[in-house]
Task: inverse folding
């Protein structure tokens, strides 16, 4: 009998094949005290395990084909950098020496301390970085405890065509899967913004997460269908299901082949309206794919990576050199740099601030609030962005603005820095556009007030949706309430777009909603003319734009604004589009 298991699809596509269940040996961490004469040997044991973990990751990195985008290797490099980070490796050595803990327990204590910090973060992308800590620490623990490598970590052509089911997977696991010919994976845990999920999208491997207790219903070599589009796994599918999904696979192949031909085509609607289609970028290594998909620029460049895996924040010159290197790769395309979006509750190394632990960090001292309170953190970045603006088309974007007083404070600081640079005879773009993220309902409702003060706005739907419907989108207990089509969300988007039109300034959208081509026509009908999306989805969105007739979409969007629920909007779109 066919059984359907439901999770969250994080990488689109369909795969059919037998199951390989990853059963990791439970890592029981021993706790004991070592004698004074054993300190040096125990420290050496930990150092050797860290060295071996580096060797393993470098070997995995070498499996990545040269033809694959460099951003894939960046995920492995992130874990290698963590192994070099004193926050992860030096503190356990100190615990061995000072408290006489064994290496495994000292490493566990530091792992617990780091994870507790990440769990307090309000930003979903940064909060899931705790998974990276776990992946790196687990690798070292397995070496210390002399556990055998997992099957998929060793060369094994017999795994070709399999679908992996696991509790969780590290980015290194995902890279090895593609190398061994594994066609898809599903995990019982994980988040949509985890490195593993992002990597699956980059590698075009169908993937599902949050498939709770899936291994209870699956056995080794069971035939399954995994649908990354809907987040569904069919166990023991019948002939009709197999026929249907194999046909879908063939249609998908034709569809994705046709997308490649759109790289150089303008994102223009059937009635001749040109749409701006840019890319969101996480790391400097990602800029290569921007050109590969033909993006017209970068609408969101996140800078938080500069503050992570370090003990002190980056200085002005480090910011400047980073942005300069990026601009060289952009070759004249516009670059929108978002300023620091961390919080005081986020003890992320270089962004670390002192202060009491906050009970509700998502509503606490974060992003621009932190920057205004800590100008020593904010001003070096602003100076660097302004200096970089002399070398290319740079736009400066402020996150998390919620009132006009914050906006005026930021603009005053920027003017002060401009005066400083002028006196120092340092070149910069005097007319650099300054904009803001609209990701708080208060900012959307008062978008006309912000639009009068700024050069552009960009709607961050990830936060806007979860703040509007009051849920944490990475919380498995409530993420079913995360609904981009909720009438309140659509009305806030429309309010923001209308404010931009009245003020004659551009309004973009850089949240995940912009990259989901199921929503593209609705957003066009609402008036959105600038999209910034994950590069993996850019060509899909472009195809939908090219096939759209704005005159037909406007009345559909107007009807959606009158709907009473997200389900009603979805039904309307299904009937009308």
Result:
């Amino acid at each position: 009998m066919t059984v359907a298991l439901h999770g969250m699809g994080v990488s689109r596509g369909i795969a059919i094949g037998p199951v390989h269940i990853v059963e990791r040996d439970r890592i029981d961490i021993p706790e004991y005290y070592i004698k004074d004469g054993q300190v040096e040997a125990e420290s050496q044991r930990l150092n050797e395990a860290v060295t071996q973990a580096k060797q393993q990751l470098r070997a995995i990195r070498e499996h990545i084909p040269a033809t694959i985008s460099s951003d894939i290797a960046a995920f492995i490099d992130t874990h290698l950098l963590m192994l070099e980070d004193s926050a992860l490796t030096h503190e356990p050595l100190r615990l061995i020496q000072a408290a006489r803990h064994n290496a495994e327990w000292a490493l566990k204590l530091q792992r617990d301390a780091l994870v507790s910090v990440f769990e307090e973060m309000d930003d979903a992308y940064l909060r899931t970085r705790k998974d990276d800590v776990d992946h790196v620490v687990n690798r070292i623990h397995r070496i210390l405890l002399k556990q055998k490598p997992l099957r998929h970590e060793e060369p094994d052509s017999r795994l070709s065509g399999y679908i992996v089911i696991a509790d969780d997977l590290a980015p290194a696991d995902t890279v090895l899967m593609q190398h061994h010919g594994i066609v898809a994976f599903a995990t019982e845990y994980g988040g949509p913004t985890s490195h593993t999920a992002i990597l699956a999208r980059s590698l075009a491997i169908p993937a599902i997460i949050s498939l709770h207790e899936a291994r209870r219903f699956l056995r080794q070599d069971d035939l399954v269908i995994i649908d990354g589009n809907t987040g569904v796994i069919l166990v023991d599918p019948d002939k009709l299901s197999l026929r249907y999904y194999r046909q879908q696979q063939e249609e998908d192949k034709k569809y994705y082949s046709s997308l490649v031909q759109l790289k150089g085509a303008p994102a223009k609607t059937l009635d001749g309206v040109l749409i701006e289609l840019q890319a969101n970028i996480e790391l400097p290594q990602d800029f290569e794919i921007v050109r590969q998909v033909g993006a017209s620029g970068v609408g969101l460049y996140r800078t938080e990576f500069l503050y992570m895996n370090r003990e002190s924040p980056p200085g002005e010159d480090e910011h400047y050199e980073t942005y300069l290197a990026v601009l060289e790769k952009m070759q004249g395309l516009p670059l929108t740099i978002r300023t620091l979006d961390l919080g005081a509750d986020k003890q992320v190394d270089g962004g670390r601030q002192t202060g009491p632990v906050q009970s509700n960090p998502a509503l606490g001292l974060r992003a621009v609030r932190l920057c205004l309170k800590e100008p020593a953190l904010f001003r070096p970045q602003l100076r660097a962005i302004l200096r970089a603006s002399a070398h290319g088309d740079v736009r400066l974007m402020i996150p998390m603005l919620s009132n006009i007083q914050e906006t005026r404070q930021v603009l005053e600081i920027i003017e002060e820095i401009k005066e400083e640079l002028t006196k120092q005879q340092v070149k910069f773009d005097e007319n650099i556009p300054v904009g803001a993220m609209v990701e708080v309902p208060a900012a959307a409702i008062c978008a006309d007030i912000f639009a009068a003060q700024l050069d552009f706005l960009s709607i961050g739907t990830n936060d806007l949706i979860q703040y509007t419907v009051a849920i944490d989108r990475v919380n498995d207990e409530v993420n079913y309430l995360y609904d981009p089509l909720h009438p309140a969300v659509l009305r806030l988007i429309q309010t923001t777009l209308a404010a931009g039109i009245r003020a004659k300034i551009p309004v973009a959208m850089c949240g995940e909603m912009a990259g989901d081509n199921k929503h593209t026509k609705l957003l066009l009908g609402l008036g959105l003319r600038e999209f910034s999306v994950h590069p993996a989805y850019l060509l899909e969105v472009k195809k939908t734009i090219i096939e759209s007739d704005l005159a037909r979409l406007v009345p559909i969007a107007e009807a959606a604004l009158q709907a009473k629920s997200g389900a009603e909007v979805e039904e309307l779109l299904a009937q009308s589009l």
